[in-house]
Structures are given as structure tokens and as C-alpha cells.
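@channel sequence for tomorrow's demo:
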Amino acid sequence: MLLILGPGCSIKKFAVNQVGDALAGGGATFASDDDPELIRAAAPFSLKLMESLLAESPRHAGLRFASASGFTQYAYAFVQMDADELEDQDFAAAEALRGRAKRLYLRARDHGLRGLDARHRGFEARLRTDPAGAACVAQRRDVPLLYWTAAAWGSAISLAKDDPELIKDVPQVEALIDRAAALDPDWGQGALHSFLITYEMARQGAPGDAAERSRRHFERALALAHGQQAGPYVALAEAVCVQKQELEQFDALLAQALAVDPDAAPEYRLVNLVMQRRARWLLSKREDFFLIPEPSRAD
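C-alpha cells (generated this afternoon):
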């Protein structure tokens, strides 16, 4: 019996890992698509398939990365953004969508943490009690998992106004993203810098001006993506200009985001289309975000 089952189990695991490798490496197909609604419909099946494979091969690093990144992106592009756009028409429905987005972000976070745990035994447990110490064991190859785990966790916290236990996890998010930035600050064609554009405005206890730190990350993100990504423009407009009430720069940044040609860099096509949708929504809400003086009228 052992002689029969042993090879069978090995063949099954080999097959699962082969399919897992193919799925984990298939992100470019989604990233270059020009139809966000097609990806909205297709992504749930792909994500559940990856989770099914992870049940058979829980230490598959590529599938953990793909699940962490996939659930995070799906939650933002197709759940949280829907909630923001729906709020004026149906507040209760928007809040329900935000609750779903938070759950998806936490699901993504858990995939990232399990991936890091597979590489560094006890990583998650130590991260809970000693965030900086745990993050120090991460290596350069861990940067993608560090980034997506932090992005998912931070996004969940941003939606956790009624969840003080989750809000207490900010030090863990900060430890992960700061370690990633220390190991490979230019990873992902500026992805880390784009994240930090927003995060610096909420960082507690850091020296200097938060907006100035955000603007430095913005400039670096633009340079690394050669100006071919709309995301940094949208991040600076939403995170800094709204808080600082800089309406003129807000308008200019979002105009630049909308001027990005999604077809110029196919590897960014889908994310650019999603961020341009965000830019148009932000422009539609400018009167809610800014104190715009009434135009003067001559008597």
C-alpha cells in the first residue's frame, strides 16, 4: 500500500506545484488587459483556484505571493472603489462593500504572512510582539511578500474605524514596509514609493514634514516608472493635496494621471485604467474635498 500511495502522492504534489507555478507566473496576462470589467469577472475564479492549490501545497511561495497580491488588488479595484463611488447614492450598501473589502484585505494579509512564515519559521508570531525584530530577518527575496502583506494590512486598517484591535496593528505594517524599503527601495518600478506617498501622511513620530516626505517618494516613483504610471499622481493628489487643501495642484496632478497613455506600457495597462477611473471620481468630488470660494459677482 505504501509503495502504491507514496508515488501517487508525489505525482499529485508535483502536478499541483506545476499548476501553481503557472498560475503564480500568470499575473502579466491580467496586468496587460485593456478590459477591467473582464478582469473583475475572471479574478474570483483565479483567486479561488489558487487557494484550492494552496490547500494541497501550503508552502508554495509563488502561490502565496500571487494570492496576497491578487486579493489586495481585487479588493481595491473592484470592491473599495465601488464603495466610494456608491456612497452618495446608498450609504448602507457602500458600508457593506467596505466591510467586504476589509475582509478581502485581511485574507490577502494572511496569505502574505503564511508565505513569510514558510521562509522564516515563527515570523508571524514574533511580528505580533516584536515588529522591528521580526522584520529584520527578512531578506531581499522577501520584498514582494513584505510589500503586499503591508499593503493589504494597511488597507484593512484604513477601513477599520470601528475595529480598535486592527488599528493597533499599525506598528506591524510599518515594520514590514520599512524593511522592504531598506532592502530594495526601488523594487516594483516604484511600487514601494507609491505606497509611501500615502503612508507618510499617516506616519506617527517621524521627523520632518510629512508632505515633503510624500513628495520625495512621488518624485522617485515617477522616475522609476518613467512617468508611465497614473498611480503616483493619484496618490499624491488624494493623500497630500486634499489634506493640504492644494486645489490647483490636485487638479493638475489628476490631469496628468488622465494624460498617461495606458497602451504606452502594456505591463501597466490595467492598473493605469483602474487609477484613471479613480482620478475621474476624485475630480467629480472636488467640491466635497475642498473649500472652494463662491465666485464674486459685481453689483
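heads up for whoever presents: DSSP finds 16 helices and no strands in the chain.
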